[in-house]
Amino acid sequence: MPVSGPEPATIRVATRRTPLPPYATLPVYQALARRFGRDQVFLLESAAGPKRDRKYQFVGFGELLSLSVRRDTVRIEGTASLLGPLRRRIASLVHDEAGVLRLRRPRDLWGVLREVHALFDAEGSSTRFRFGFLGYFGYDTVRYIEDLPLLIEEGPELPDVHLVLHQGCVVTDLDSGEAELLLHESDAWPALDRDVLVGVLARAETDHPVPRDRPVPPSDASDDTDAETYRSDVERGLEHIAVGDVYQVQLGHELTMRSPADPVDVYRRMRSGNASPYMYLAHVWGQTVVGASPELFVRVENGTVTMRPIAGTVPRTGDDEAAGARLLADEKEIAEHIMLVDLCRNDIGRICRADSLRVPDELVVERYSHVLHLVSTVQGEAEPDRDTYDIIAALFPAGTMTGTPKIRAMEIIEETERSRRGLYAGAIGVIDVGGYANLALCIRTLFHRDGVYRTRASAGVVADSVPAREWTETLAKMSAAYWAVTGKELL
After folding, report:
1. Parallel, antiparallel, or unpaired: how do β-strands 445-449 and 452-461 relate?
2. What would the mean pLDDT of 95-120 be, rounded to a whole number?
3. 388 near 345, Cβ under 8 Å?
4. Strands (DSSP E) along 83-160, which ranges?
5. CA 256 → CA 16, 141, 208, 223, 280, distances in Å?
C-alpha cells in the first residue's frame, strides 16, 4: 500500500490594513521607489474610461518572491525562506539540470503557477485585490497551451510569464475615494515599519510634486517594417483569407525610439496625453513597462468572467460625432467586431456555464486620445471547478490580437511579422489568491531598456481591408506612445 508523503509546507500570512487619506498615485509611486528602488515598485491606475473599468488603483512595493518562465526554464528569486518550500512544491513539475529548473512539459507551467499560490496560507478575496501577485503573461504564453512554430528570431530577453509577490500595497477604491495600506506579515520575512511608511506616504506629494512641463529630449526612431513592406504583408494576409485559411488576422510592426527620456516622465506624458482605464508603470527583467491600455483582457470577480473586446478603429479628426457615426456605418469594421465578439463568446464558453453567457453591451463607441474604438462586453459565470489559471489558459491570447481562427492566425503572424511580440498582446495585472483577477491587454505600451523605447501595434486584416488604411491604423494606435517619448505626432 503506497505511503503518502507529508503535506507540502505553507507560509502563513496575515495582512495588516491601515486606512489612509487619498493620495495622488504617481507621487506615491515615486516616494516608494525612492525608498525601495524602482525595480521593487509597481503602479497600476485608471485615469479615464468607463466606470466599470475604473474601480481600483494600486502601488505595490517590496518584492518578496518572483517566478519567471522563459522557453520552459523556470527561475525563482526572492526571500531565502520562500525559495526552498517553493522548489519542493514544484519538484514534480520540473527537471533540475545542474541547478537550472526546466518544465517537464510546457503545460506544466499552469501547475507551477498554482503551486506558487498554494505556498501561501493567506486571506485572499474573490472581489478585489488583497493578497496575491502582479502578473505578466507575454504573447508567447500561448506556447504553454498550443504547439506553434517558432520562426521569428529572439528579441530582447523577456520572460514568457512572470509572477511577483510584493510585501505591501497602497490600494485606492475609486468608487468610495477611500485608500488603505496593506502590509503582508509573516514569520518568513522581516516586517516593515508601518509608521515609517505612513510618514513616507504623507510626505509623498510634498516630496514629489508634479513638475511643470519639462522639455522633451531629442530622439531617433526606426521601424522594423516600412509602409510598402507592411502593405505587402497585408496583401499576403488577404491571400490567406481568400483561400479560407482565416477570416481575420492581426498583423503588426515594431517602432524603436532612442531617447534619454526618463520612464517616469514618459509615463506622466502618456497619462496626460492618453489617459486610459488600464495604465501601468512596472519593471520586469531589467525593462520598464509603461502602458496606457484601453482594453481589458479578463476580469474575474466573484466567479464572473468578463472580457471587453475592442475591434474597430478610426483616428480622431476633431469631429468625434461624425467619426463615430462613420465607424458604426462601416460594414468592414462592424463585421470584424462581431466576428471577434463571437470568438470571445466561444473562448469564455470553454470555462463558463453555457446558460450564463451574455453580451450586455455591444458596439459601443469609446473615445481615446488619438482614436475611436468599437467596444463590447462579454460575460459568463465560471464553472465551479475552474480556477484563475484555467480561465487565463482558455482565453489566451485575446482574439482581438490574433484573428480567427486563432491557431491558424497565429501561425500566419509568426510567418509574417519581423520581431517577437514579447509582452505586447499579452496581459498584465493583479491576481489574488482568493480568485479575483484583473488583467489588461498589453497594448499601447512602451518597453524601455538602456535608453531605447519600443512600442508596436497591429491592425486586423479582413477580406475587404485596404492595405494603406491598415498601415495608417497601426500608426494611429502607436501615436500616443510615440508622442510620450518624442513630443511629436506620428500622423
Report:
1. antiparallel
2. 96
3. no
4. 94-97, 100-103, 120-121, 132-137
5. 43, 23, 30, 6, 20
